[in-house]
Design a protein that fits this description.
Length: 267
């Protein structure tokens, strides 16, 4: 049987969480549960740091690419993130706490939802790992022209530098910011805010900001995370963006749970 990570500490913390929920009940602001849990942890003699003191900048190449602010860090061993979501916990909540665990290099987080009849506590373990590398340019090989080669080479080298420097485990928004910094540090022209005008039967639709980065006005780069494959949705989305931006080629880069994948996409 695998030993539970931080078994004794998490057992004590779980008791504090249930005490707060039993007395306060569901239906109030997250801040109320935060303050109540801080008070209960003090009573239990468990040291912690609470936000806003947990707020820390993620700096890459001397530029702030993200800011992380967990609700509670206990003894530099455990991170707690508190929610009040009647619809239940979402995938983004797990991605958020995994990013915190990776950044602080801790092995366990507790994701807590106070909105239900009883407090829901999800244990979120984190184990650093080296990702597998997978690249597939078959879909664009026959349409790559000489003018694309240097840009594609620089895009690839930038993405590989990111995975080498920071690894896997962050959200797509963080990797997107990292990519912008890395592309620009290599002298690439990178548009990070691209507005397009979709059309329907020759009628213009409202302007829309899209997520991919446009590099050297010819290559569209889309950043995905968490998934260990590049889905049909991601490919179809990239094809839409290629059509709307007029870019020649697309690259989807996925910083997954166990893999780092780069795939070329044609219009």
């Amino acid at each position: 049987m695998t030993e539970l990570i931080e078994k004794e500490l998490s057992y004590l913390v779980n008791g504090c969480i249930f005490d707060v929920h039993n007395e306060v009940g569901p239906g109030v602001r997250e801040e109320c549960y935060q303050k109540a849990l801080e008070h209960r942890l003090i009573q239990a003699g468990i040291p912690f740091i609470a936000k806003p003191k947990t707020r820390t900048e993620f700096v890459y190449r001397s530029i702030i690419v993200d800011v992380f602010e967990p609700d509670l860090i206990l003894l530099q061993r455990l991170i707690i993130e508190l929610k009040h979501q009647p619809e239940g916990l979402a995938k983004d909540n797990f991605t958020q706490i995994l990013s915190y665990l990776k950044f602080w290099n801790l092995r366990l987080g507790l994701l807590v939802n106070f909105a239900m009849e009883r407090a829901i506590i999800e244990r979120v373990p984190y184990e650093p790992r080296e990702p597998e590398l997978e690249e597939n340019y078959d879909y664009i090989r026959d349409i790559i022209q000489d003018r694309h080669r240097m840009t594609l080479r620089s895009v690839r080298e930038s993405l590989l530098e990111i995975i080498k420097s920071v690894g896997i485990g962050y959200a797509a928004t963080t990797y997107r910011n990292l990519a912008v910094v890395e592309f620009r540090s290599r002298g690439l022209h990178c548009d990070s805010e691209v507005a397009v005008t979709p059309m329907f039967r020759e009628r213009p639709l409202p302007h829309s900001l899209i997520a991919p980065l446009v590099v050297e006005r010819s290559v569209c780069v889309q950043i995905e995370a968490i998934y260990d494959d590049i889905s049909a949705r991601a490919v179809r989305t990239m094809q839409t963006h290629l059509r709307l931006t007029g870019c020649d080629l697309g690259i989807v880069a996925c910083f997954g749970k166990t893999k780092f994948i780069i795939r070329g996409v044609r219009p």
